[in-house]
Automatic annotation (TrEMBL):
GO MF annotation list: endopeptidase activity; serine-type peptidase activity
Single GO cellular component term: outer membrane-bounded periplasmic space
Record's protein name: Peptidase family S41
SUPFAM superfamilies linked: ClpP/crotonase (SSF52096)
SMART domains attached to this UniProt entry: TSPc
Entry superkingdom: Bacteria
Residues annotated as domain Tail specific protease: 261-507
BP GO annotations: proteolysis; signal transduction
Length: 540
C-alpha cells in the first residue's frame, strides 16, 4: 500500500492512517469514474443497437393499446378536437396497418401522425435519437453545425435560403433547396408536417413550427452528417452544391471553452451567452419616452419578477403613454411569469386562469418528478418526494364530479402599484403559443389591449399542459409526455377551436425573403399612435 510520509518528519499513526484512507478513497473514486465511463459507453452502444432492432407486430400493437390507455387515464380533454369514434378508428386502423416488424423510429413515423390527429399542440410523441460516445461528442465540438452555415425558410412545401452570411458556395438569398442527398425536400416537409399539430383548427402555427423543427427531424432520421449534396434552383437554373461541416479554428474552440461572465443586469434580462441575445428587453421608441416597447421571447420565469418590477418602474418614471408588448414567436412557458406580467398591465384585481382540471384527484402525483435527473440529484430530490406527494394531493379537490388543482394563477391577484395605465398593444403571430395565447386571450377579453398581427398558434380557450406525465412505451421505448392539467384563461370562451384572433389582423409577409421586409405589425401600431396623437393635438 502506498503511504505518504514527509521526509524528516515522523508522522503519527493517526496521520498515516488518515492519509492512507484518503488514498484508498481516491483510488476507489478512480475505479468508480472508470466504471461510469464504461457504463456510459455500453449505454451508447445498447441504445444504438436498439434503434436497429425490429419490434414484432404483436408488440407494436401492445404499445399502441398501452398509449391509448394512458391517454384516456391522464389526458383531461382527450376528445376536445376529435370525437371518440374517430380517434378509436385511427388507433384501430394503425394496428391493422402493421404487417411486418418495425424499428423503434420506423414505428415512430407511423404512430406520431395518429397522436398529432388529437390536435393538441403540446401532445407530441418523441422518437429515440442516436447516442454518441464522449469521443464523438468531443469531435463535434471542434466543428460547426452543418446546416447552421445558412438560414433557411420553409414556405408551404418548399425550402429557401433566407440568409447566407458567409457566402457559402456563393448561394444567393432566395435560392430554393430542391433536394438533400437525392431526397426531395418537399417530400420531407410533408412527412414531417404529419408529426405534430397545433391546437384545434388553428391555421398559423404549423408554418412557424416547421421552420424550427425541420432539421431536428432530419437529424433524427439521418444522424449528424459531415457533408451533404444539395440540389438548388435560382432563376430557373438548377445546380448541385456540396457543403461540408466546417472545422472550427483553434481560436473558436478556445472561445467556446470560456464561460462568459454574465452581469446582474444581463441575468435579469435572461441573457443567452451562446446567441448573445436577451430573452427580455425594454426600450423606448421615441426620444420623449412616450412609447415603451417590451420584447419577450419566451416566458422562462428566470428572474422574471425582478425584471418586470424594474421595467415598469422605469416606464412609470418615463411617463410613457403607450406600451407595445411583443410576444411574436414566443412559444410560451411559465404561468407564474405571465401572471406577474399581467399584474403590471391592469388596474383591478384579476384571476388569470380558471382552476386547472384533471382526470382524477391523484393525477398530479404522476408528474415528472425525477425525470431528467442524474443519480446524485435524484438522491437529494428523494428527500422532498413525500412532501411533493402530500402537497399535490392536498391541493387537489373534487367539485360537481370534476377534479381540480389549486394553482396560484387561478387565485385572485392584485395589480402592482407601478402597473401601466396607458394604451397597450400586443403583437402576436402563429409562433405565439401556449402561455403567450393565454395572456393574449385574457388581455383581449378584458379589453385591456389591442391584439395586433395574426391568429396565435395556441388556442384562445386554453390548452392541456402545465405539468406532464411522460410515459415510456414498453416495447418501442418511445416517450409520450401527457399534459395533466387543462389550463384555461379566466374568460368566456368563444368555442371556435381556434387561436386568439387579433383585433387588427396584419399579414406578416411570412414568405418574404428579401431580407429587408417591413415590419408591418409594428408600422400599423406606430401609425395608430401617430393618428391618436394627432387627434389629441387637434383637440387642444
Amino acid at each position: 500500500m502506498l503511504e505518504y510520509v514527509k521526509v524528516g518528519v515522523r508522522p503519527s499513526l493517526y496521520n498515516v492512517k488518515t492519509l492512507n484512507l484518503i488514498l484508498l478513497i481516491m483510488r476507489k473514486a478512480q475505479y468508480l469514474f472508470l466504471f461510469i465511463i464504461l457504463m456510459s459507453c455500453q449505454s451508447v452502444k445498447k441504445n444504438n443497437l436498439f434503434l436497429e432492432k425490429k419490434i414484432p407486430v404483436s408488440q407494436l400493437k401492445r404499445d399502441v393499446d398501452f398509449t391509448y390507455d394512458k391517454l384516456k387515464r391522464f389526458h383531461p380533454e382527450l376528445y376536445w378536437y376529435i370525437s371518440k369514434t374517430d380517434l378509436d378508428h385511427k388507433f384501430d386502423s394503425l394496428k391493422t396497418s402493421f404487417t411486418k416488424p418495425l424499428t423503434p423510429n420506423e414505428f415512430y413515423f407511423q404512430f406520431s401522425p395518429v397522436i398529432a390527429s388529437i390536435n393538441e399542440g403540446h401532445l407530441r410523441l418523441k422518437a429515440i435519437p442516436r447516442k454518441y460516445t464522449k469521443a464523438e461528442q468531443k469531435a463535434f465540438k471542434t466543428k460547426r453545425p452543418l446546416f447552421a452555415l445558412m438560414d433557411y425558410q420553409v414556405v408551404g412545401d418548399k425550402m429557401f435560403v433566407k440568409e447566407n452570411r458567409e457566402n457559402v458556395k456563393n448561394i444567393k438569398v432566395g435560392t430554393e433547396i430542391l433536394k438533400i442527398n437525392d431526397e426531395n425536400v418537399s417530400d420531407l416537409i410533408r412527412k414531417y408536417r404529419k408529426l405534430y399539430s397545433s391546437d384545434g383548427k388553428n391555421q398559423t402555427f404549423q408554418k412557424y413550427f416547421m421552420n424550427l423543427s425541420f432539421f431536428n427531424y432530419y437529424t433524427l432520421e439521418k444522424g449528424y452528417l459531415d457533408s451533404v449534396n444539395l440540389q438548388t434552383r435560382y432563376d430557373n437554373v438548377i445546380s448541385d452544391v456540396f457543403i461540408k461541416r466546417q472545422k472550427k479554428t483553434d481560436q473558436q474552440v478556445d472561445i467556446d471553452k470560456v464561460k462568459p461572465k454574465i452581469t446582474t443586469v444581463q441575468k435579469v434580462q435572461d441573457y443567452d451567452a451562446s446567441s448573445k441575445t436577451y430573452n427580455r428587453d425594454l426600450k423606448f421608441l421615441k426620444t420623449d419616452s412616450s412609447i415603451a416597447y417590451i420584447k419577450v421571447k419566451t416566458f422562462s420565469a428566470t428572474l422574471a419578477k425582478k425584471f418586470y418590477k424594474e421595467t415598469f418602474a422605469e416606464i412609470k418614471d418615463a411617463k410613457s403613454d403607450y406600451l407595445i408588448l411583443d410576444i411574436r414567436d414566443n412559444l410560451g412557458g411559465s404561468l407564474s411569469e405571465i401572471n406577474t406580467l399581467y399584474s403590471y398591465l391592469t388596474d383591478k384585481e384579476f384571476t388569470l386562469i380558471k382552476s386547472p382540471e384533471m382526470t382524477s384527484r391523484t393525477s398530479g402525483l404522476h408528474q415528472n418528478y425525477f425525470r431528467g435527473q442524474n443519480v446524485l440529484s435524484s438522491i437529494f430530490s428523494a428527500v422532498g418526494y413525500p412532501f411533493f406527494l402530500a402537497g399535490n394531493y392536498l391541493l387537489s379537490s373534487k367539485k360537481e364530479g370534476r377534479y381540480y388543482f389549486r394553482e396560484f394563477a387561478s387565485k385572485p391577484t392584485k395589480p402592482k402599484k407601478d402597473a401601466f395605465r396607458g394604451k397597450i398593444y400586443v403583437l402576436v403571430n402563429g409562433g405565439s403559443f401556449s402561455a403567450s395565447s393565454i395572456i393574449s386571450a385574457k388581455l383581449k377579453y378584458e379589453k385591456r389591449a389591442l391584439i395586433i398581427g395574426e391568429e396565435t398558434g395556441g388556442a384562445n380557450d386554453g390548452t392541456v399542459a402545465g405539468v406532464n406525465n411522460t410515459v415510456t412505451l414498453p416495447h418501442s421505448k418511445l416517450a409520450l409526455p401527457i399534459g395533466l392539467f387543462l389550463i384555461r384563461p379566466n374568460i368566456e370562451f368563444d368555442n371556435n377551436n381556434r387561436g386568439v384572433m387579433p383585433n387588427i389582423e396584419v399579414e406578416p409577409n411570412f414568405g418574404d425573403l428579401s431580407g429587408c421586409e417591413e415590419d408591418k405589425m409594428m408600422k400599423w401600431v406606430l401609425d395608430d399612435i401617430a393618428f391618436r396623437n394627432s387627434i389629441v393635438g387637434k383637440a387642444k
